[in-house]
Amino acid sequence: MEPAHGPGDALDRAVIFIGPPGAGKGTQAKELARLYGVPHLSSGDMFREHVSRGTPLGLKAKPIMDRGDLVPDAIVLEMIEDRIARPDCRHGFVIDGFPRTAAQAERLSELLEHHGMGKPVVIHFVIDRGLLMRRLTGRRMCSVGGEIYNIYDRPSKVPGRCDNDGGALIQRYDDSEEVIGPRLKAYDQQTAPLVAYYRRQSVLRDVDAAAGVEEVTRRVMKILRNAR
Ligand code: AMP
User: Fold this and answer.
1) Predicted TM-score of the model (pTM)
2) Which of 62, 67, 100 has most ligand 1 atoms within 8 Å of its beta carbon, as the pocket-test mutant?
3) What value does the mean pLDDT of the chain take?
């Protein structure tokens, strides 16, 4: 598929976004996937969809998400394996929120090999904790299309309404101050070690994620061009 305003070349690989919650991974992943015309895979979005549909998986995941803990690997892996197996992922995809544990990272490597996808590019979002708190507490999400806003840095044109579809903007329950702490702890303990794992494989690139949305997109695209 040719993207309408794409960078002019195909992605043809998996791009993995890694970084703490609130670093901007979801916003950037959506934009990058749009520019390259590839699917955006977000384990968090998939879980939220299950929760809103009230599926058995959603019922299992909801209390865990509300505590700020990680959903068990077996559940996450089954969901992600099914998604990556779909044909639309064959020309590359952008994935955020996965992997979050060593077991998930190992399995993702196996899956990429199994589907003949070669080495991924892993973009590590580097950002300080002060800015992270501002992004998390200010984040609002469209209840219809999932578009992400921030009341401080990226407000919608009409307060409380999505620019794209007019949907009501909501605050994620797990962006409340009491859940942010456990989420950051889960990141530090279980996900941050993956930075070293991917650095050892020479597939990791750091991006300074403190800049505005468009600037970070430019930086990520530059990394992808240079990683060819
Ligand atoms: P996110 O939208 O990426 O911040 O994810 C929201 C919540 O979904 C997390 O706090 C976890 O409870 C759960 N979750 C999303 N992705 C994963 C994953 N790869 N492994 C375990 N839990 C996950």
Assistant:
1) 0.93
2) 100
3) 94
